[in-house]
Specification:
The chain is of the alpha/beta class. 25% of the residues lie in helices and 24% in strands. The protein is built from 12 helices and 22 strands.
């Protein structure tokens, strides 16, 4: 097993600062890096062992042969401070520090929404956690509601997850403050403003936070980790994830409580080993995940590790159509290069507005006004095919025009979905 690596930057906010030195002995659950200023979050070791190196980027620890489940507990603190000390960040996206999200209570009413959408295809660990035991998630939701003084809680989940829905319905029976809301089975219905639109009927501006609608949105695994921190005094040291794709074992597997810092290669070994023929390794989901390597560590925001199918050869020139809800331009260029295609041109979905340099958000996630002009422009620029990162509705609009212009369409999710024999994102009927 490779040494465990704990980067100082694992989420939105300032990097943490090391408090250990090479040669130090550490125990599982010990703080090894304090929170930096400005949305900082501490880092705890998930293993017992010896510190090998401390660089400007990370701490490396050689774990003992046996990986213990016991941990050094957090001190007895009020719930919000316990969440801060535990190092919990959002586990469904970029990793916004959870204590900051819960730091400002509502003055009148308010709702905490548990995001159980499991929005990305292939990823299944959140739903399996609900099916296995949803009580920690309910407990975390109740704690979050108490912290922000919310008068109700809503669990937003796709109706297609029947077993999980039934488990939640049974768990919340008798608590009049809690309810379920059923989401449509489309991508990106798990985006925060999409959830606000679906649950509360309010469409927020691209730059607005859920608090503007009187809401706080928390991923279901984050809620589980909140309950662990408050009730069990457990720092955030383990992560649930889906491992899928070109594996020697089952195509889609779920692992609960994978120690943070474990190398991707060792996680893949837990899944039976990696097939020697694969296209790339993705950390995250098929839409928003990033290319990773075998020696990269599991970090706080790791939700999936996917070994994709080998890349199909692309045309000589390809056009990139970038959606704010999927892979960005840099990621699409990376994929085009792996296909052996030169980029003829780049177009952005008409609703993908730049809110700050390099960051785009959709005006109305999942509701697309049409892409005909963008597709025609890319063809005029010499594109012989399209590589797109569009959401469900955007992809439908692309497929309504691209074939008529004799433009084959590739999607950023193709390699991941092919690897698990999943239906590709193309023309999708609601």
């Amino acid at each position: 097993m490779r040494p465990f690596v704990f980067p100082f930057s694992q989420h939105i906010g300032a990097p943490s600062a090391p408090v250990v030195q090479p040669g130090d002995r550490v125990q599982r659950g010990q703080c090894i890096a304090e929170a930096g200023e400005g949305l900082g979050s501490p880092v705890y070791t998930s293993v017992s062992g010896t510190v090998l190196t401390v660089t400007d980027e990370a701490i490396t620890i050689q774990a003992d042969d046996a990986l213990p489940t016991a941990y050094l507990p957090l001190p007895d603190l009020p719930p919000l401070e316990c969440i801060r000390q535990a190092g919990i960040v959002g586990l469904g996206g970029a990793g916004f520090p959870t204590y900051q999200k819960l730091a400002v209570p509502f003055l009148n009413g308010g709702v905490v929404i548990a995001n159980a959408s499991e929005c990305e295809p292939v990823l299944t660990h959140n739903i399996q956690a609900i099916e296995r035991d949803c009580q920690p998630i309910i407990r975390g939701l109740q704690l979050a509601m108490d912290i922000v003084h919310a008068d109700r809680g809503v669990i937003a989940i796709k109706a297609i997850h029947g077993q999980a829905v039934r488990a939640l319905q049974q768990a919340i029976a008798g608590d009049e403050r809690l309810a379920l809301h059923f989401l449509p089975n489309v991508y990106p219905v798990g985006e925060e403003r999409a959830i606000i639109r679906e649950v509360l009927g309010t469409l927020l501006d691209a730059g607005s936070l859920p608090s503007k609608a009187g809401a706080v949105i928390v991923n279901v695994e984050t809620l589980q980790r909140i309950a662990e921190a408050v009730d069990d005094k457990k720092p955030f040291i383990d992560k649930d994830m889906t491992v899928a794709g070109k594996l020697k074992g089952e195509e889609i597997q779920v692992f609960h409580d994978v120690p943070l810092g474990m190398a991707v290669s060792d996680v893949l070994e837990k899944a039976g080993g990696l097939d020697p023929e694969y296209g790339e390794l993705i950390m995250g989901g098929p839409f928003m995940g990033k290319r990773t390597t075998l020696d990269a560590p599991v970090v706080k925001t790791t939700g999936g590790i996917i070994a994709t199918e080998t890349f199909l050869p692309g045309p000589e020139k390809i056009g990139l159509l970038v959606c704010a809800c999927g892979a960005d331009e840099k990621r699409l260029r990376e994929m085009a290069a792996s296909m052996g295609s030169a980029v003829a041109g780049v177009a952005f979905c008409k609703q993908a507005h730049e809110v700050k340099p390099g960051v785009r958000k959709c005006d109305n996630p999942g509701h697309c006004p049409g892409q005909v002009q963008r597709v025609m422009t890319l063809k005029k620029e010499g594109a012989q095919a399209l590589l797109i990162s569009n959401c469900t509705d955007c992809t439908n609009t692309v497929m309504a025009c691209a074939p008529q212009l004799h433009l084959p369409v590739y999607h950023c999710t193709d390699g991941a979905l092919r690897a698990v024999h999943h239906k590709l994102i193309r023309r999708i009927k609601a």
